[in-house]
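Data deposition worksheet. Section B asks for the primary sequence of the deposited chain exactly as it was used as input, without tags or linkers unless they were present during the calculation. Section C holds the resulting structure in token form. Section D is free text for depositor observations; keep each observation to a single sentence. Incomplete worksheets are returned to the depositor.
Section A, Depositor: J.P.
Section B:
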Amino acid sequence: MSAVEAERAAYLLNAQNKAVQLFEEIEQKLIRPGISEKTLSDEIHKLGSERHGVRTHWHKRVVRSGPNTLLPFEENPPDRVIGEDEILYVDLGPVFEAWEADFGRTFVLGNDPNKKRLRDSLAPVWNTVKSRFCENPDMTGEQLYEIACQEAQKAGWEFGANLAGHLVGLFPHERIPRDKTTLYITKGNDQAMSMPGKDGNKRHWILEIHLRDPANNVGAFYEQLLTVE
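Section C:
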């Protein structure tokens, strides 16, 4: 790895480490029943700005609870109050010193064993999908999406989204207007994920795991850097 590539990877990892710290504080101080998703989102924005130096997010803040966890990113469901016995996830895209993070975690309030089992399946599925990617980093985005779907099913769930990740980088990262395939881990992306970006640099990817429990009408979400250790 060249010095330039090592520096880029270090910046991305540093941004993610800062996101981890933000999420730790979100879990410790903000996640609680009796408040609405919008209120929690606003509190997260305030916390990020005042304590973690977040001045902008490269995508909208997403806080989803209960049946709203089944909806795709693009949806904007009606606000919902978080209950005592609840599953919810937070998906943030904070920018730290011009470098993007994209980080998502699922939380469970109460003692429902099914919700806890769903949440606890996320990290093992993510790690297995990453391991299979590392065996063949030249695979296409479509191939990795199919792997994510397979591993979700092996864990006893459905895969709950039409993509399993995307590019991340220096804000704003590389995009193709109106193209929701080429730079995503999704069906139809037949390009090798190891292809360099248009700037000639190594592309870095976020891996997203969306698990769906149709029997209980809830979902769960987990995402972080795939291509930086």
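Section D:
DSSP finds four helices and ten strands in the chain.
The longest strand covers residues 204-213.
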